[in-house]
Amino acid sequence: MRIVATTTDPVRLSFLRALLADAGIDTVVLDAHISAMEGGIGAFPRRLAVATDDERRARAVLTEAGEATA
Known about the structure:
InterPro entries: DUF2007 (IPR018551), N-reg_PII-like_a/b (IPR011322). This is DUF2007 domain-containing protein. The protein contains 3 helices and 3 strands, in the order βαβαβα. With about 70 residues, it is α+β, with helices and mostly antiparallel strands. The radius of gyration is 12 Å and the shape is globular.
């Protein structure tokens, strides 16, 4: 797995996942449980990961959409 983005914004995270899903790229959200434990204050960023084989394509999709990658 490779990290392609980090964010504390759940709306942005959802948007990034939708972009990648539309391109046929599966994603995994890391640190989702710690963010639930923090009570939603946004102190801990969630990491968006893709399979190693999909990293290059995922970064290209996110860059094309104007989104910064990690």
